[in-house]
Amino acid sequence: MRSSGRGWWLYISRDEDQLAIKQINRELIQRIWYYARPYRFKVLGLLCTILVITGLSLIPPLLYRELIDNALPNGDVSLLNMLALGMILIPIINALVGAGQRYLSATIGESLIADLRNELFAHLQKMSLRFFTHTKTGELMSRLNSDVVGAQTAVTNTFINIITNIITVIATLAIMFTLEWRLTLMSIILVPLFVVPARRVGRVMRDVRRESMDLNAKMNGALNEGLNVDGALLAKLFGRQADEEAKLGTHVRAVANIGVRYAMIGRWFFLMLGLVSAIGVALVFWMGGHYVLQGAFTIGTLVAFGRYLIDLYGPLSAMSNAHIEFSTSVVSFERVFEILDLQLEIEDVPNPIQLQNVSGGVKFDDVYFSYTEGGDGGASLLGLTANGKGKSKANGKGKSKDNGKGKSKDNGKGKSKEIDKEESSAARVSSRRMAIEGISFDIKHGQLVALVGPSGAGKTTITYLLPRLYDPTAGRICIDGYDLREVSQLSLALAIGMVTQQTYLFHDTIKANLMYARPDATSEQLESACRAANIHNMIESLPKGYDTIVGERGYRLSGGEKQRLAIARVILKDPQILVLDEATSSLDSKSEALIQDALEGIMQNRTSIVIAHRLSTILAADVILVMSDGRLVEQGHRTETQSAHEILLAQDGLYANLYQTQFRMLPQGGE
Questions:
Q1: What pairs with residue 579 in β-bridges?
Q2: Residues contacting residue 144 through CB under 8 Å, at least 6 positions apart
Q3: pLDDT band at residue 632 under the 50/70/90 scheme
Q4: Counting beta carbons within 10 angstroms of the beta carbon of residue 349, is it exposed (0 to 12), middle (13 to 18) or buried (19 or more)?
Q5: At 626, which helix (H) or strand (E)?
Q6: What proportions of the chain, in percent to the nearest 5, are helix, strand and coil?
Q7: Which residues, 6 or more positions from 233, have their beta carbon under 8 angstroms from its beta carbon?
């Protein structure tokens, strides 16, 4: 969306570009109203309070006129008392109505900010894993916090001020015309001096505001990286605290500089408006003084007129400022909508298949996948990629200009497009771009599958594609014969249990981390899962047992303890398909020996896919898939007479070489 400081209500132009900007702003306001609509009755009440406060605020100058022209010259004590009482009651009533107005505006604003945050978080939860690998968490947090608060300010302050000032200007002009039309005309001659500069200043401040938000997001990203436990540990280990401080200092200075620039632009603008107001007041009192000397009207009328003149120029100045505030505050809405408008790379088709009674048959059919060809999941559209070069391409209509490259090749009906031989040949690009190429295998219910191969061969990629963290660039992946693109993501997640290389634990209790897999689990089920994972005794030895806080990312536990908790969590989930990505890599020989029996127990009657680097797992596998440079180079299937291991050894290929150089050196119980 192109920046513009020109509000759609302040100008009419035939220029196509200006008309496009006007249309964009109107649509933006309509979209903002969509979020305020659930609170429309509160909004109506808010408008009523504005009318009451504005109307009451216009009465005091008339009281001053009566005081000067009638009560004092005529010695009317009764009128004097009534006027004094009115001068007391009006501020009290205004204050009470103002309290109600504040309650309504706060309720509307806080409700809107809660709705926006919930919708933003829900949308981000649906983004693909690719999006998060290209995004800095701190910058996303800035969108969820600073930008949403900015959007709230636009609703609770800017919009209310605009409406209040418009009503005040109209009512004030009406009263001024009844008092003295000639002075009123002289007063409004200066109005263009308020409006015209606002166009240029509004455009500049809008751009500065967006730049300020971008710089704040980068600063938050740097803070998040430096203050999380991994970043702090890394800085300490390498002695780079001073460099981290310097890096953050660069961001902090940039934020400070843009803040000073923003403040000075506003200051010079209001200095000019103040000068215009002073000139206007001086001219009116000069001419009005001549009218008083000529007997055209009374001193009280001149005093009241002067008070109304202040009431006129004040709101006019505020309206010019409101135009600027609107131009800058809608940037917050735009940045929020940029995220909401990002198309989901992975989403359910209409009426998706709900997996039930899963047997666990898994099939990869000529699967290709690239981490780079799918784009960055939309992160570059927000400027959130690692290099920060991405810019938003929102067209202002609530739709991001996504080129669709991050989308899976789906025809919208849940059916993947068939790839003929010519297209398949074209898909066979360099291994440098494709993480896996032409992978095909078939796993039957209850089989134990071992994925083996050198580092970078594509083993982890296969385990990411199965739970549909990514969609394949080409080919199909099926569970029980259903293409994953046709299956409900929730039912797929419930059917698959996965223990990844990096175990993530919330900064919460052990019990809460375990129950993440099964919120309705009983204490007996928790303990049973932990006993199976050989972690129960360790938990019981802690002072608070299952109520022990594990710390940020579980850093209060050892690597092996975290991994056993992750295994216990999967056992508690009780999935039909089990995926273990080097799940025992952090266990010592004793712990692994104790847990192998538990793993073998939960693998019974389940399809299990294991990235294996333990000889015991490889020897027990029904199927061994050998990966190299993203390709499936060998696969062995257990027969009635031979194990998969023996079959692959007889082929004297890559597996035989890996066995001679790596696996053979490992004891069957562990390393």
A1: 498, 609
A2: 117, 120, 121
A3: very high
A4: middle
A5: strand 623-628
A6: 60, 10, 30
A7: none
CB 441 within 8 A of CB 636: no
Edge-first strand listing for the sheet containing 631-637 = 496-499, 577-581, 607-611, 448-452, 623-628, 631-637
For residue 479, the SS3 value is strand
Highest mean pLDDT among 99-103, 140-144, 274-278: 99-103
Is the Cβ–Cβ distance between 474 and 427 less than 8 Å? yes
Token pair for 573: 């989930």
Q: What is the pLDDT of residues 219-252, one digit of tens each?
A: 877 777 776 666 665 676 666 678 777 888 888 8
Burial bucket for residue 319 (CB in 10 Å: 0-12, 13-18, 19+):
buried
pTM for the whole structure: 0.67
How many angstroms separate the CA atoms of 567 and 594, rounded? 13
User: What does the H/E/C string look like for 494-539?
Assistant: HHEEEECCCCCCCCCEHHHHHHCCCCCCCHHHHHHHHHHCCCHHHH
Residue 592: φ, ψ to 5°: -65, -40
Q: What is the C-alpha separation between 267 and 64, in angstroms, rounded?
A: 33
DSSP annotation of 554? G
Judged by average pLDDT, the poorest of 13-17, 96-100, 321-325, 498-502 is 13-17
Q: Is the Cβ–Cβ distance between 428 and 396 less than 8 Å?
A: no
> Using the 8-state DSSP alphabet, how is residue 187 labeled?
H
H or E segment to which residue 266 belongs: helix 241-293
For the chain, domains (ranges, CATH) are 16-340 (1.20.1560.10), 362-503+573-665 (3.40.50.300)
Fill in the amino acid letter for 156.
Answer: T
Q: What is the pLDDT of residues 405-427, one digit of tens each?
A: 333 334 433 343 333 333 333 33
The DSSP output letter for 449 is E
